[in-house]
Amino acid sequence: MSALPDPVSAHVPEPHLVTIPVGWFLMGSDAGQDNELPIHRVWIDSFQFAAHQVTNADYARFLRAVGKLPPPFWHDPNFSHPQQPVVGPSWHEAVAYCDWLARSTGRPYRLPTEAEWERAARGGVEGTRFPWGDAAPESLPNYATRWRSGPEPVGLSAPNAYGLFDICANVHEWCSDWYAADYYSIAPDRNPRGPETGTRRASRGGSWRHHIKVTRCAARSSIPPHLQYADYGFRVACGLDAASRVSKSNSSMSS
Predict the structure, then answer these.
(1) pLDDT tens per residue, range 164-211
(2) Mean pLDDT over all residues of the chain?
(3) Distance in angstroms (rounded) separating the CA atoms of residues 8 and 234
C-alpha cells in the first residue's frame, strides 16, 4: 500500500531516477580489503536510483517542511552551494529525509542496500575496479585540481553506464544495511539486506577529503549511524511495484 502524500510538503519535486535492471552480478573484489571477500554472485531485483546525490537545495525543502535544524557545516561556504551534495546528515536523518519524500510523493523512497549500490555503481560491467574500467582515478580529467576544499556540485562529471553521476566520488553515501565485515560469507544470494543488527551502518563511495578521491565499486565503509561528517551524504533509491518488476524482468530476458 503506497504512502499518502503529506499535505504540508505537497508538490515536492522528485529526483531524476534511473532504472537499475534486474539481474545477477559479481559482488566483491580480490583487489581490496578482506571485507570485500568472498566474491559472490548476487541477484538484485530492478529498482530506481537517483542520478544525483541529494543536494543542499533538495535538503533545504525537507528542512523547511518538517522544521528540523540543518546538519553541521550547513553554513560553511565550502559546503553551502545549492547544487553541492548535502554533507553532515546522520544515517537517521538520511532515513528521515527518505521517509518524508515517500510521504510527500506517495512513492517508496528509501536508502539503497549495499548490494543495490554496488550493482548500480558497476553499471552492468563485470570485473572492473571502477565504473569506467581499471585505470587509476588519477587518470580522470582534471583530477589534480578537483575536490580541493569540498565536494563538487553534482553532475559535473560523466555518468556511469547506467546514468549515475558521482557514483564513486564526492561524498560517502549512506546505505540502509547494518555493517558486518564477514557478511559476504553468510549473505543470501538474492537481494541481501545486511545483518539483522549491528553498531555501524554501511556506506559506499569515495570522499572529497581522502587522499584517493574516487573509490572502487566494491570498496566498503561504515561508521556509527549517529555520526555527522563533512564527507558523508546520500542518494535515494525507490522501489518498483511487482508488476513493474515483472515487466522489466521480461524485457531484460528478451533483449
Answers:
(1) 999 999 999 999 999 999 999 999 999 999 999 999 999 999 999 998
(2) 92
(3) 24
Query: Among 223, 201, 220, which residue's Cα sits nearest to residue 111?
Result: 201
C-alpha distances out from residue 193 to 138, 208, 223, 248, 252, Å = 33, 27, 17, 22, 23
The pLDDT assigned to 1 comes to 34
Dihedral sign from CA coordinates of 75, 222, 162, 152: positive
Report CA-CA distances (Å) from 18 to 21, 153, 239: 9, 19, 12
CA distances from 214 to 133, 152, 220, 250 (A): 13, 13, 13, 35
Helices 91-105 and 56-66: crossing angle in degrees, nearest 10, is 80
Q: Is residue 247 over pLDDT 90?
A: no
Torsion sign, CA atoms 54, 59, 65, 68? positive
pLDDT digits (tens, 9 = 90+) for 14-52: 999 999 999 999 999 999 999 999 999 999 999 999 999
Place of cell 522501489: 239
